[in-house]
Amino acid sequence: LEPQDGAARVKENFPVHLLAIGGSDGGxxxxxxxxxxxxxxxxxxxxxxxxxxxxxxxxxYYVSGEVTHWRNLAHRTAEDIEALGIRLLMDTxxxxxxxxAHQVAATDQAGGGSLVAYDxxxxxxxxxxxxxxxxxxxxxxxxxxxxxxxxMSDTFAVMQTIERVNARSAxxxxxxxxxxxxxxxxxxxxxxxxxxxxxxxxxxxxxxELGRLVAAELRRHGVDVCTSTRVDSIExxxxxxxxxxMGPGNEPVERTTDMVLVVAGVRxxxxxxAEAGAKLARNGAIHVDTHMRTGLPDVYAAGDCVxxxxxxxxxxxxxxxxxxxxxxxxxxxxxxxxEKEFAGSLGTQVVKIFDLVAARTGLRDHEAISAxxxxxxxxxxxxxxKAYYPGAKTIHLRITGDRGTGRLLGVQExxxxxxxxxxxxxxxxxxxFAGLTVEAVNDLDLxxxxxxxxxxxxxxxxxxxxxxxxxxx
Length: 473
Ligand SMILES: Cc1cc2nc3c(=O)[nH]c(=O)nc-3n(C[C@H](O)[C@H](O)[C@H](O)COP(=O)(O)OP(=O)(O)OC[C@H]3O[C@@H](n4cnc5c(N)ncnc54)[C@H](O)[C@@H]3O)c2cc1C
Description:
The protein is an alpha/beta fold. It is built from 12 helices and 25 strands. It has helices at residues 25-37, 59-63, 78-83, 152-164, 177-188, 208-220, 271-275, 321-335, 365-370, 421-433, 438-441, 458-472, and strands at 17-21, 42-46, 86-89, 92-98, 103-108, 113-117, 120-123, 127-129, 146-147, 169-173, 192-196, 224-226, 230-237, 240-246, 252-257, 259-262, 266-268, 299-301, 308-310, 314-316, 349-353, 356-362, 375-383, 394-402, 408-416. α1 (25-37) packs parallel to α8 (321-335). The longest helix has 15 residues, at 321-335. Mean pLDDT is 95; it is low at 1-12. The structure holds flavin-adenine dinucleotide. Flavin-adenine dinucleotide (FAD) is lined by residues 21-27, 46-49, 56-57, 59-60, 93-94, 124-127, 149-150, 178, 269, 272, 303-304, 319-322, 324. The site of flavin-adenine dinucleotide has 33 residues, from α1, α2, β4 and α8.
């Protein structure tokens, strides 16, 4: 194995060759930031597949048919990236990082080996879907119509199944945000969806009071929602699949279906970094500091494979594209000599479910308690704009503040798509980021015109509800 050309090591610790392992949000962001800062740095992105810089967040909208070609999911094409002077090593899997020699051993699809030298490396190997302990799951795969969903290849396999069996029905195991987006996507395609969730409510990242509204929206669009229901086994049944589950009262729940999608979360993909000696957190994510340093010389890491530094919770794990982009940018900057810090996540997230949008930022009660706060959560509703202007809709909010200090800790919201729930949660995220109290949210100079808002925006109406409630108790 010969070191690859163009990867000359230099002295004085000045990185001339940055290698990013991973061609998705984390790896590409690192490469782009390094290029932006220094046109002279030699940059290579190595990725195990042939889909660099694809927006896997957009997969549900390709499955639904709203995005008409899979190529449209690319944030940038391979040509766009290469035009920036970033070398792409596609279909190339990193097998081993030799930290002392500053080399990565890799194999291509044909099994051919190569050694890629680096001065600094950013590990951005992402995450892989969790396969819950469901009988039969290990033996069944895409050829049987049983799928997980994380990569473009997973997406193509789903689409092949839909066409091959002319799928009329699907069981989705899991009702987190990806499961919900896929319930909408398949329903939009005319597939009858059963959604099975073992927890008592769908979208368990928000309080059950709001999850119930999401479940109602799913049912309104014909989705068969089974909560508190645990899938025990999947087996072939003629040309179809039989899913056996246990319902809330321990009664058997069975569905015969054309396809099954298991979307039960992800786990960090960290073998490569761990074998190189990187320290792992309890959940298996690579431990990095706020500079995205792994502790191994010249080895940085970012994205779904690393722990998440949270502004209120400390070290946690929240795998999200928005975070992977930011961490990758920090890693890319520091890998070429910068001193940038990742400012920390608030777990801000949003999901569209048919005509509803659910969003959250910051902490819910149980998280706040674990971080040592004394949370009080208050429910509120407010119109998205002045009721006298046609089309006003109710937004449901839950606002959490610390009883002792009055600090704003978290906000959850649900409203119709046209109510700009996502931007309103971003106001809350900015307020929490800045460490504002609930009371101080009322001082924010937010915009107002009757067709779009009220003199007190919904987030301020919720803050006032919180203040009234906590003053009483
Ligand atoms: C359907 C879906 C919808 C989503 N929607 C949202 C959303 O709306 N908002 C949001 O914030 N997040 C969303 N996410 C999550 C978001 O996509 C991820 O958090 C983000 O893509 C993580 O980026 P990453 O670069 O860390 O890892 P990944 O995207 O997991 O990419 C890992 C990369 O590493 C490569 N790789 C792995 N191992 C090796 C190796 N040994 N050698 C070489 N290359 C390797 C892979 O080929 C890939 O290029 C969604 C995810 C999915 C699946």
